[in-house]
Amino acid sequence: MEIINEKIDAGKAFDWGRTSEEYARYRDIYPEEFYRKIVDRGLCTDGQEVLDIGTGTGVLPRNMYRFNAHWTGTDISGEQIAQAKRLADESGMKIDFRTVSAEQLDYPDASFDVITACQCFFYFDHEKVLPKLARLLKPNGRLLILYMAWLPSEDVIAGKSEALVLKYSPSWSGAGETRHPITIPDAAYNWFEPEDREEYDLYVPFTKESWHGRMRACRGVGASLSKDELDKWDAEHREMLDRTAPDRFEVLHYASMAILRKK
Predict the structure, then answer these.
(1) Number of H helices, E strands in the chain
(2) Cα–Cα distance for residue pair 229/142, rounded to 1 Å
(3) What 3-state DSSP class applies to 121?
(4) Helix (H), strand (E), coil (C) string for 122-166
(5) Residue 119 contacts by C-beta under 8 Å, 6 or more apart in sequence?
(6) pLDDT tens-digit map of 166-184
(7) CA–CA separation, 38 vs 68, rounded Å?
(8) Sign of CA dihedral 181, 185, 188, 190
């Protein structure tokens, strides 16, 4: 499904379905600490009903399945959901994945203890989505917003890779990340109150191939470039990695979380 949002990439169209196979293979990269910080706060565990919106290939539900919550995952992209179902089925996980946008969620009121949004919260129409999420949460339910990004000004490989994305997608708005708290829109405070937040650094391990796949699966590359552009980017990025990177390396990231409690 092609998406056009004037607030993202200056309105350049992108389609996660075009990169779903690579997304499934290369974007399951969150370190154990990322998940432990969630569980340590008593979220997404022990029989809780959890809805993961913008689930993509189901990275969060699949990696947190072992903590014994009951997971539902939704995404606007049918191709992403197909990959999520495949990966969950291969691992024997019972997760209810559905293709639906966050703006069109239609579950009964008070269905969930926790709603998670990982790497996706800024895509949504907050005026429409936030009251819906509040309605879907049980009393005192939590909205957990998660994000992780590389730090291009502090990591050489990330910086060179990002520069190459911008060469082919100059309007890509994912560039130049720095450490910062997750931005909470003013509309959220009509239905939620802030409970907790944290920002912290992570070193994420890669090989040349897995980092190349991770970059190819980003919005500014595989989800939006033409075939000719993608072929050229692919060759240049591989050549850059051969010159710059060892066979195995770590890329500096920061992670953020924000926990909002339903009023």
Answers:
(1) 8, 7
(2) 42
(3) helix
(4) HHCCHHHHHHHHHHHEEEEEEEEEEEEEECCCCCHHHHHHHHHHH
(5) 54, 56, 146, 147, 148
(6) 999 999 999 999 999 999 9
(7) 13
(8) positive
Q: Which residues pair with 250 in a beta bridge?
A: 205
Q: How high is the pLDDT of residue 101? A: 96
Both tokens of 102, joined, read: 């966050």
One-letter identity of residue 31: P
Hunting for tokens 């000004």 — which residue is that?
A: 153
CB atoms inside a 10 Å sphere around CB 183: 11
Low-confidence ranges of the chain (pLDDT < 70): none
What's the burial of 53, exposed, middle or buried (CB within 10 Å: 0-12/13-18/19+)?
Answer: buried
Q: What is the pTM of this model?
A: 0.96
CB-CB contact of 164 with 233 (8 Å): yes
| 3-class secondary-structure state, position 176 | coil
Helices 227-244 and 156-168 cross at an angle (nearest 10°) of 160
Instruction: Provide, for the chain, the percentages of residues in helix, strand and coil under a 3-state DSSP scheme, each rounded to the nearest 5.
Output: 40, 25, 35
